[in-house]
Amino acid sequence: MKGDIKMADMKEIYGRLNEVFQDVFDDDSIVVRPETTAKDIDDWDSLEHIRLIAAVEREFGMRFKMGEVSTMKNVGEMAGIVAARMTR
Amino acid sequence: MRELEYPFDSELIQASRRKLKKTLLSDGRERIAKKIAVLGGSTTHDIIAAMELFLLDQGILPEFYESEYAQFYQDAMFGNPELDGFGPDIIFIHTSFRNINVGLPQMSDTKERVDELIDSQFRYFEAVWDKLREKFNCPIIQNNFEMPFYRFLGNMDASDYRGRINFVTRLNQKFYDYAQSHKDFYINDINYLSASYGLEKWSDPFYWYMYKYCLCVSAIPEFAFNVSNIIKSIFGKNKKALVLDLDNTLWSGVVGDDGVQGIDVGQETSVGQGFYEFQSYLKSFKQLGILLNVASKNDHENAIAGLNHPSGVLRPDDFTIIKANWDAKSENIKKIAAELSLLPESLVFVDDNPAEREIVRAYVPGVAVPEVSKVEEYIRNIDRGGYFEMTTFSADDASRVEMYRQNIMRAQLEESFTDYNEYLLSLEMHADIKDFEPIYLPRITQLTNKSNQFNLTTKRFTESEMEATLADPDCVRLYGRLVDKFGDNGIVSVVIGRQKGDVLHMELWLMSCRVLKRDMEQAMLDELVRISKERGIAEIRGYYYPTAKNKMVEKLYETFGFALVSSDEQGNTVWSLKTEGYEPQNKVIKVN
Fold first, then answer.
1. Percent of chain B with pLDDT over 70
2. Could you tell me if B551 lies within 8 Å of chain A, comparing CB atoms?
């Protein structure tokens, strides 16, 4: 189904991603966009990244591959992987 | 906090760690501050973050030292100014199968060669422990090893001396031998934990390759909970007693409606077997000194009848307090705590009824209330809750249940007398009040170092200082042991004086609060005066040094009939008693 993701689905994914980010960083003011990177969010360091990845995996019932975890450049790439692999 | 009680949602804990921490830190609860050094053989960051939550929930405010990545050996063996300056109260060494570094057995190895490998791997760790003990003299918690996640030799990996499962099993055994022979050394049993969690998931190598975690990230809360249980137990935060519901908790059915014949426990049915095993599990807690109590909405006679069910395991006299009535359980639990002289936070309440659990959580804050809804979950949820995590086991623990039972009987007897003196006489007390004997020195020293309230000078003695006192001809020493018709209270009082000329200076006078208001202190004084006279002592000088806890004995020497000699601004007082013309004061205890 790759490449067949409707805009409405992406909107829902960003909504759910946003909640995960707010929980992990305990900051209700966070709004993630495709271009958001670790530099944009306080406390998003390599250690918090592990927790974030685990929380995203849990939310969408999917797993990132080893290479992806360290090479995703921004939230947009993360959302793309999620969209392709999500099971819930 | 519900989110942190077993069975918990590990992912939720990790996802909302910050929020949980904030909530815990703002709950206004008093906590004891402890410094915890975590020396890792792999990544420890999220482990520490999760330990912090559980410890906060268990009444401990932790401050952490975290070694640099995998530097546990270097920190221990070569020192580290930051660690030295930190001064840990406890050290946790987080190592795993990934830290086995002397090499694993090869198929060409002889049995002797593998023995050597095990020995040398053990010595590598032993050197770390010995060094840390010598330097910091504090408790050490050490992981054992989880089983390797693949079996090179298949099933033979367990039985063949060259198998790695075999190797790890033998190495673990050496760790246990060390734990058995060294004080203040505790094993964090990750072998059990990983098996219980599922070794395959636990050891998912993704997390090792990615983050250098030796276990999967989602297992971290369970892991952290397991370690924090050991820590809270060491620092005295264990629970002490169980309060149990009866109907559908200890047996299936409602004894008041169904009658004794109608309730189910025993070997006849599958449900009955579940309750039978649960009763057996509870009964075994008595060996650990954990008190069993009942809070049940039932008529008392029905409760007793249910507990006498011929196929049950528990009997009415296995319980310290049975509250079977129609009052709110929260009130009964408060009364049980008061009668046992325990805080509600020392209790675990077990009830199959979720409404009762909610009421108790709301009205008796601090009581642990595990989730138990199906009998096949009861044991697991209580066991994994870690409420009674054992880190030491003393003779006092073994006899605690009996001691509480005797105290309850004494209290009941006291209620039946209007005249207190009559009550004391009815206890048929007799005491041994004698010079120290070598076999009692450990108990005398233990009592001396833990008595705070009935303690005039609060002087502490190491065991070797106590031995020196025993050998000193100028010292007058007395221990007091009190027995009554309900049982032996053991050694409950210690008195030490130092003779200079014809004056005896009291260096120590203390008594266990277990025997307050029994006239034991008068019996000790009588004996002290008698021996003093034999030694030609004309005057006994008593000293009272106030502390935050010993106000109860501020006036002790005055009530004994001593005259005040001097006092200072800090409240220190000196007292004097002439031995000539002294009249014995104890009239209720037979001595020697």
1. 100
2. no
Question: How many angstroms separate the CA atoms of B141 and B179, rounded?
Answer: 10
> Over 90: is that where the pLDDT of B464 sits?
no
**Vertex B434: Cα angle to B429 and B439 (nearest 5):** 105
* Three-class HEC string of B184-216: CEEEECHHHHHHHHCHHHHCCCHHHHHHCCCCC
If you average pLDDT over every residue of chain B, what do you get?
94
- Interface test with chain A among B24, B211, B214, B216, by most A beta carbons within 10 Å: B211
Closest by Cβ to B15, choosing from A55, A66, A70: A55
Across the interface, which of B11, B19, B211 has its CB nearest the CB of A50? B211
Residue with the larger pLDDT of the pair B521 and B343: B521
Q: Do B11 and A50 touch (CB under 8 A)?
A: no
Q: Does B210 touch chain A (CB under 8 A)?
A: yes
Question: Rounded to an integer, what distance in angstroms lies between the CA atom of residue B479 and that of residue B591?
Answer: 12
Residue B285 scores a pLDDT above 70: yes
Q: Is the pLDDT of residue B440 over 80?
A: yes
Q: Say whether pLDDT at A65 is over 50.
A: yes
Q: What value, to the nearest 5°, has the Cα angle with vertex A64 and ends A59 and A68?
A: 135
A80 within a domain of the structure (yes/no): yes
Q: Count of domains in chain A?
A: 1
More confident residue, B332 or B464: B332
Interchain contact, B17 vs A51, CB within 8 Å: yes
Most B CBs within 10 A among A24, A27, A50, hence the mutation to make, goes to: A50
Interface test with B, best of A44, A58, A60, A71 (most B CBs within 10 A): A58
B591 backbone dihedrals φ, ψ, rounded to 5°: -110, 135
Residue with the larger pLDDT of the pair B137 and B94: B94
Looking at residue A8, what is its pLDDT?
Answer: 64
d(CA B315, CA B323): 15
> In angstroms, how far is CA B6 from the centroid of its own chain?
20
- Residues of the domain holding A58: 7-85
Quick count: other Cβ atoms within 10 Å of Cβ B337? 22
Instruction: Tell me if A1 is assigned to some domain.
Output: no
Q: What is the DSSP letter of B412?
A: H
Residue recorded with tokens 């039985």: B159
| Predicted local distance difference test score (pLDDT) of residue A1 | 47
What is the ipTM for the molecules in this complex?
A: 0.78
Looking at residue B80, its pLDDT comes to 93
Whether A55 is covered by a domain: the verdict is yes
**Does any domain span residue A65?**
yes
| Distance of alpha carbon B1 from alpha carbon B9, whole angstroms | 13
Chain position carrying tokens 């002439």: B578
Task: Identify the CA nearest to B151 among candidates B163, B162, B161.
Answer: B163
* C-alpha angle B248-B252-B257 in degrees, rounded to nearest 5: 85
Q: Which two tokens stand for residue B532?
A: 């003093």
Q: Which helix (H) or strand (E) holds B510?
A: strand B503-511
Q: Which two tokens stand for residue A21?
A: 């980010």
CATH number at residue A11: 1.10.1200.10
Report whether pLDDT(B56) > 90. yes
pLDDT digits (tens, 9 = 90+) for A2-55: 445 566 688 999 999 999 999 888 889 999 999 999 888 888 887 788 889 988
What distance in Å separates the CA atoms of residue B257 and residue B263, rounded to the nearest whole number?
9
Amino acid occupying residue B534: E
- What tens digit of pLDDT does each residue of B188-207 get? 999 999 999 999 999 999 99
In order of their start, the domains of chain B are 2-234 (3.40.50.1110), 241-384 (3.40.50.1000), 427-591 (3.40.630.30)
